[in-house]
Write a structure and sequence with these properties.
- The structure holds three protein chains of three kinds.
- Chain A is α/β, with parallel strands linked by helices.
- Chain A is built from 17 helices and 22 strands.
- In chain A, a hairpin with a 3-residue loop joins β11 and β12.
- Chain A is globular, with a radius of gyration of 24 Å.
- Chain B is mainly α.
- Chain B has one domain: ABC transporter involved in vitamin B12 uptake, BtuC.
- In chain B, 77% of the residues lie in helices and 1% in strands.
- The longest helix of chain C is centred in the C-terminal third of the chain and has 27 residues.
- Chain C starts with a helix and ends in a 17-residue tail after the last helix.
- A two-stranded antiparallel sheet of chain C has the order 1-2.
- Chain C is built from 14 helices and two strands, in the order αααααααββααααααα.
- Chain C is mainly alpha-helical.
- Chain C is 68% helix and 3% strand.
- Classes of the chains: A alpha/beta, B mainly alpha, C mainly alpha.
- Chain B: InterPro entries: ABC_transp_permease.
- Chain B: Its main location: membrane.
- Chain B: This is ABC transporter permease.
């Protein structure tokens, strides 16, 4: 193994009273994929920002290509070949992929004149080297998430990166796209680039990593080759707790009207002929690749983007849903896919987020007492850890923020709750809590529809799983068929 | 009780910017009170401020309301002028009573607000574009209606409204206070106000919370239009006439006042008391500078400098604590 | 077809053609040199302001100080210029003052970290106040001799359509040159492309090694200089310096820029679009009288046009986003 290209040596970082990193040492060698894993808030992102020069460590050093820096600047890092791809990719949406790939190099190189053809050629070379295909001539804003991810990597390659760090690059990717990404990562590795990969998805870690470092509470817990761990031991190291699982109770819905019945739902050109039924107390999974129409179906049922054809019944009564407000009235709740932009009012108080949908009022005026009662009830029932109810929701961790969202919908005592990716970006501990809440609610008769691409989670939670492909429900799996391999196969079949 | 009082004052949130504003307002009074006590603290000067503030304050409230929903209403002064012209024409050419004229003018203002609300809420046009365009249209219509001149000869019962005093304070100042209280109650005490704030804070999340965003926006711009109408009537009563481009600089002044008050143009925060205080403070500043017998143009300079200073303070005052808070979340 | 409508510039040209045709059918004389010269003359100053504003808007922000910058630069220059000052130096000084005022705008935006709208609101009221308080407020009707000469130097003078002569001032060449320069800057320089990058996503741009403050300084400097030039051209053409010339007309220029397809949120816009927007408004104004509509309707007409244009733009941009998911028209067989 060659000498490390980037190394963090005893790095500590404090923000005011918060110790984000404590004495962290990690090394990244050329031609090696090094996974940094840990729960949200463990310090992964802070570590990346120290390595890229965005944060100055409180103590410790960063060594890049043999030079030790007490205070590495972003420019020094960039010119030494250190590239960090953040979760938002940092691309300019209005520029073409080619420009996004070529422009930073021209800027950093101090060039004055810009040539479209030269930029196009440079971008093309980077894309070829990466071994992928990207539409180079349309604005990045019109590309898919996966294409944007690849554009960001191509940009790193275009200015001769020797170290590329990716912060949870697969969050928004479908399984197929993850494969393409991993293939690209493999090629980078062969060409001698040092790679850091931040993730908390077990499957990925084991399929790509050559070295795994686990962070917890800002410190390194352990580091080693992936074959030194099992899924369970790694999860335990990350959380510091043993794993939990659920007892699935069969729903007692014989003879009762289904919580939700959808027939012949369609919206051109997104989905068609969608029939599904969720019994009272039943938890149903909706599995499908990103872009399969799974989100569109959910958004049609809850009225965000209403369907053009078909009928929806709640507890046997037909309802007409033209907007989310109609769905709320009918007893349908929807926890959206993207918590940060769709779910929460980040800078508004936690309490106001809780009552945003079910807002008690009398004769046209808010009723403060019952508002306060509701806020307190949700915080208590869902065990939300917070400072004050008036703190902005931004101050909460991913798990607690998701509980706020869940509580906001449970307040209305819905008959059906649709959750789109309920545990994305939620740490392992909170994940079990959230799933536990759903389990408990379903026992009370709530019908639940979970949309997720976390197959093990769907299997552990759901009574049945429906598979969506190209805008249609193509399979239903239950009982013995409900296994990881069958679901994956059904979802990815073409 | 004090807690509740504070809440009504602030509606919610940033106490720091509100205190800064109070300091500035008091500072203006103290400085000019010391420099030119005889002129600045005279009843005449006070009366001037009381008469000149209402129209500005009401227009600023309209602007601030739309800013609460992360919008802006560049057409509000055009609405004011159009309704002023309509009222004036009904009274002069139509020989109708001031009451009827005011009602009609108010109706026109509501209609204008509805046009804005439809464009912004239901047609999803960015507010700055929608109101830029409708502002041109409304002031264009006012221009046509007035024939490009000042509509003069308003009946005495109407112009007297601007001079009437109740309990020693001009009627129009009372109107401003009542309007402010109504807006304050709507914003702080009703579901509509609550939803306006959420729509401003994150429109997408509002959609995903079952809030009928289009309706909320429609209501917001109708309210803004209504305030424009009230301001237009006050302006024409005070001026004894109406024309299509009275106070074209008021659009910018209203934005300045809203920002001075600490209203976040990005949405999600409004302080009604702050807007009224900021509007009065700007008038006091103007009156104070004039009492030093400087050119009225120095007032412009000072207003601009004051805005820059407040923005600087808002940025750097919170920067120290903000830096710390933001990073903790990222980490 | 949708592409055609989506292309705002083509749409503007189409609208202008329809308008020309409509008026020309009634008055064949309208379609001729005189209209062309009138529209161009009426648009010269507006085009420059629009191009400057377009630059700032593309970089992400709405500038409302350009008219204050323009008139302060030009009025101060004329006021203090000696009667025999050369035209070149007068133009250079006005442009330089504009550039300096633009840099002040940039400084406020950068240091106060505030939106361009709020920063330029403040500076514009400072600039206007400073002009009236320290420079003066009276109309100067006797310009330096060189400017008077320039104001009556025409590139082309031809016989009028009905009577008299019609002419096009030589300064149109300056306007065209500036437009070409700004276009080339945006198209062929790294800094120009960076303007789009900053307007698209400033945070991402700064992570891509682009110095956002430097780009902002550059943009405001250019916009200020262009505004200073526009101011002095306006004074030269009108033959007098009236400090109240542009007061309260900011929204008119912004309207033209928006009509030209410049995205108000930043990151998108062309010199061509801004110029076409101004030309369309001038043409509308020129067409009203022949169409039997009193000129007093001009503003309302532009407002209605603007609403139509914006509605069309918004509807189209909202419609383009859907990607089809359903591929096979026939349903697949369920094999569960």
């Amino acid at each position: 193994m060659s000498a490390p290209f980037v190394e963090a040596v005893s790095v500590s970082k404090r923000f005011g009273g918060v110790q984000a990193l404590t004495d962290v040492s990690v090394a990244f060698s050329p031609g090696e994929v090094h996974c940094i894993v840990g729960e949200n808030g463990c310090g992964k992102s802070t570590l990346l920002k120290v390595i890229s020069g965005a944060y100055r460590p409180t103590s410790g050093q960063v060594i890049v290509a043999g030079t030790a820096y007490d205070h590495l600047t972003p420019r020094q890092a960039l010119s030494a070949g250190v590239e960090v791809i953040y979760q938002d990719f940092s691309l300019m949406p209005n520029l073409t992929a080619a420009e996004n790939i070529a422009l930073p190099g021209s800027v950093a190189g101090g060039r004055r004149l810009y040539s479209r053809t030269a930029a196009r050629a440079l971008a093309e070379r980077a894309v070829v080297r990466l071994g992928v295909e990207i539409e180079l001539d349309i604005p990045v804003g019109e590309l898919t998430v996966a294409e944007r991810q690849l554009t960001a990597i191509a940009r790193a390659l275009a200015h001769e990166a020797k170290f590329i760090a990716m912060d949870e690059p697969t969050t928004a990717l479908t399984w197929k796209e993850v494969d393409a990404l991993f293939a690209a990562v493999g090629r980078l590795k062969e060409s001698g680039v040092a790679l850091a990969f931040i993730s908390h998805k077990m499957q990925e870690i084991f399929s790509i990593a050559e070295r795994v470092t686990v962070l917890r509470n800002g410190g390194v817990v352990t580091s080693g080759r992936p074959d030194e761990f099992t899924h369970a031991s790694l999860a335990e190291t990350m959380t510091g707790r043993g794993s939990q699982s659920f007892d699935r109770v069969a729903p007692r819905n014989k003879g009762r009207a289904p919580a939700l019945k959808v027939s012949g739902l369609g919206r051109d050109p997104l989905f068609a002929d969608v029939d599904l039924e969720i019994g009272q107390g039943e938890i149903v999974g909706l599995a499908g690749l990103l872009g399969s129409g799974r989100t569109e179906i959910a958004e049609a049922i809850c009225g965000v983007k209403p369907a053009q054809t078909g009928t929806i019944e709640v507890l046997g009564r037909p309802v007409e849903i033209k907007a989310l407000a109609d769905a709320v009235k009918a007893g349908i709740g929807y926890v959206p896919e993207d918590r940060l932009t769709q779910g929460l009012f980040l800078d508004q108080p936690i309490g106001d987020n809780i009552v945003a949908t079910h807002l008690p009022s009398r004769r046209g005026f808010l009723s403060p007492q019952s508002i306060e009662r509701r806020k307190a009830r949700v915080v208590r029932d869902l065990r939300i850890k917070l400072g004050k109810l008036t703190d902005p929701v931004r101050s909460l961790s991913g798990g607690n923020a998701q509980r706020v969202l869940l509580g906001k919908w449970l307040l209305g005592e819905p008959k059906v709750l649709i959750l789109n990716g309920p545990t994305v970006g939620v740490d392992v501990g909170s994940k079990f809590d959230i799933l536990g809440v759903l389990n408990a609610q379903s026992l009370q008769g709530l019908g639940v529809l979970i949309i997720s691409d976390d197959v093990p989670e769907l299997i552990s939670m759901c009574h049945r799983v429906l598979v969506v492909r190209s805008g249609r429900i193509v399979r239903e799996l239950s009982g013995d068929q409900l296994r990881e391999d069958t679901v994956v196969e059904a979802v990815t079949a073409s | 009780m004090p807690e509740r009082f504070r809440k009504v004052l602030l509606t919610m949130g940033t106490r720091a910017s509100f205190i800064r504003l109070l300091v500035v307002a008091v500072g203006i009074v103290v400085v000019f009170g010391i420099l030119k006590p005889a002129v600045f603290l005279s009843g005449q000067n006070l009366q001037y401020v009381e008469l000149a503030s209402p129209e500005v304050a009401i227009l600023s409230l309209a602007m601030a309301l739309t800013m609460l929903t992360a919008g802006i209403d560049l057409s509000v002064v055009s609405i004011a002028n159009l309704s002023g012209v309509v009222a004036a024409l009904i009274m002069t050419n139509g020989h109708q009573s001031p009451g009827l004229a005011m009602l009609a003018a108010f109706g026109v203002a509501l209609a204008c607000g509805a046009v804005n609300g439809l464009l912004v809420g239901y047609k999803h046009v960015p507010p700055i574009l929608a109101t830029l365009a409708t502002g041109q249209l409304f002031s264009g219509l006012a221009l046509v209606a007035s024939g490009g001149t000042v509509v003069k000869g308003l009946p005495e019962p109407f112009t007297r409204l601007a001079l009437l005093t109740v309990a020693g304070i001009p009627l129009i100042f009372w109107v401003m206070l009542i309007v402010a209280v109504i807006i304050g109650v709507v914003v702080a005490k009703t579901p509509l106000g609550f939803r306006m704030r959420l729509v401003g804070a994150n429109p997408t999340a509002a959609d995903f919370s079952g809030i009928r965003r289009a309706r909320v926006l429609l209501a917001t711009y109708v309210m803004s239009g209504a305030l424009g109408g009230v301001a237009g009537l006050i302006i024409s009563a005070r001026a004894g006439g109406a024309n299509s481009d009275y106070g074209s600089s008021y659009v910018l002044l209203a934005v300045v006042i809203a920002v001075l008050a600490g209203v976040d143009p990005e949405g999600g925060y409004l302080t009604v008391a702050g807007v009224v205080i900021a509007a009065i403070a700007m008038q006091l500043l103007g009156a104070g500078l004039l009492s030093l017998s400087v050119s009225s143009h120095v007032v412009n300079i000072c207003q601009g400098l004051l805005l820059v200073t407040m923005v600087l303070l808002n940025t750097w005052g919170t920067a120290l604590s903000g830096l710390f808070q933001r990073r903790r979340v990222i980490a | 077809m949708r592409r055609l409508i989506a292309n705002q510039e083509l749409l503007l040209i189409g609208l202008m053609a329809v308008l020309l045709l409509a008026v020309s059918l009634k008055f064949p004389d309208f379609f001729g040199q005189q209209t062309l010269f009138n529209v161009l003359t009426a648009s010269m100053v507006g085009m420059l302001f629009a191009v400057g504003v377009m630059l700032v808007v593309v970089s992400g922000g709405i500038d409302v100080s350009f008219l204050a910058v323009g008139i302060l630069s030009a009025y101060a220059t004329v006021k203090w210029a000696s009667p025999d000052a050369g035209a070149l130096s007068v133009f250079a000084i006005s442009t330089a003052i504009g550039l300096g005022l633009g840099l002040i705008n940039a400084a406020v935006v950068i240091i106060a970290r505030t939106s361009v709208l709020i920063a330029t609101l403040a500076t514009s009221s400072i600039y206007l106040g400073a002009m009236f308080a320290f420079v003066g407020g009276e109309v100067i009707s006797i310009l330096p001799q060189s400017l008077q000469t320039l104001g009556s130097t025409h590139l082309i003078t031809a016989k009028g359509a009905v009577r008299g002569t019609t002419s096009l001032n030589v300064l149109i060449l300056v306007v065209i040159a500036v437009c070409i320069l700004v276009w080339a800057f945006l198209r062929f320089t790294v800094a120009g492309r960076s303007v789009f990058a900053v307007g698209g996503d400033a945070e991402a741009a700064s992570r891509a090694a682009i110095s956002v403050p430097r780009i902002r300084m550059l943009v405001f400097a250019i916009a200020g200089a262009v505004a200073g030039l526009a101011g002095i051209i306006s004074i030269t053409l009108s033959g007098r310096a009236d400090p109240t010339t542009f007061m309260g007309r900011e929204l008119d220029t912004l309207a033209a820029v928006v009509l030209g397809g410049v995205a108000i949120a930043g990151g998108k816009g062309t010199v061509r679009g801004a110029v076409l927007g101004v030309l369309l408004i001038s043409l509308v104004t020129a067409s009203l009288v022949p169409l039997g509509i009193p000129t007093i309707w001009q503003r309302a007409a532009v407002g209605a046009l603007l609403i139509g244009g914006i509605l069309l733009q918004t509807t189209i941009s909202r419609r383009q986003r859907i990607r089809p998911i359903l591929d096979a028209p026939a349903p697949e067989v369920t094999n569960a």
